[in-house]
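G., the chain you wanted modeled:
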Amino acid sequence: MNRNIIFLGIVSLLNDVSSEVIAAVLPLYLLSLGSSGVGIGLIGSLSESLSNILKLFSGYFSDRIKKRKIFVFNGYLVSSIAKISFAFAGTWPVVLILKMLERTGKGLRTVPRDALIADSSAERGKAFGFHRMMDTAGAVLGAGIAILFFSLFRLSFYRIILIAGLLGFLALVPFLWVKDVSGKSAGKGLVFSWRDIPPDLKKFFAAALVFSLSNFTYMFFILKARSVTGAGQVLFLYLWFNVFYMLLSYPVGILADRIGKVPVLLAGYALFIVTVLGFAAAQSILLFYVLFLLYGVTQAFMDGVEKAFVSELVDPEKKGSNMGIFYMLTGFGNVGAGLIAGYFWDRNQSLPFIISACLAGAAFFILLAGFYRKRRTIV
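Predicted structure as tokens:
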């Protein structure tokens, strides 16, 4: 395994320990600040809009100057500063502003980091699967720590978030061992024209954009379970979700290298449809344990595999730029998903999941129609 991939995985693990302590308690924290479903939808999605615009430009400029590490390091630094500030938010609109700052850090780092991973390994499904596994291992640890802090030590939200924010700065240490990999030049410039995007990538963008409209923030999954159980049990469900996400990310990445990215993504989309329909109808804690398990499996089948597939379809001379376009499109889709989910959540808590299933079904058929006859694009 390449050294960059290992140490970037460690960075993500440490960062996610911090992030997921906060993420586990954030829905409950927002409720305590009086946020509605629309507010939660805004926080879960609107902050992504700025992030995904920045992903486009950070990818482009990292191509132009042929340096990735500086963007990745500063992105994690900005996020760490924002996370520790969550502890001092007194209202949910302040949380929204800080969340936008935290997502700004993600916007700076994500595409250059993914391009660095892609440039560091020929086995991209395996490389992205390993990175996602490490990232989610941090999420498992973070969720476990959140349970200890909230249920055992009875710490306040302020103290939990403050400690988690301090932990985030540990993620900066492994950068001492990360090295830039010289890639190809970015060519003529930033690609905005739809005509200039490779045809197969264009097809995948269409499917991924529609699917992103179905993939609203995890906070609604947490709140749906909260409607039938206590806060402590909800944190266990979040941990349960991350365990299966972590365990399957790496083997699914290897599987995608062997049988192709499209079959794995189709399986992920199909399972996601089943999962969200289950959430729409669920009324028992036992069923929620099954559904959060399935939710973790769906994320393992989609997240790292999508990135690996895009990295194979992009123009090699514009890897950062094209991956930035992918993040921008799906990010705007996620904004729409969050707003739709928030609007319908305040009216009927099952409706967001039903609408999500319909949109995911459309994405499934777009992906199937685009790549079913082109076996060469599946490998």
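Residues 185-189, 375-379 have pLDDT under 50 and may be disordered.

Shout if anything looks off.
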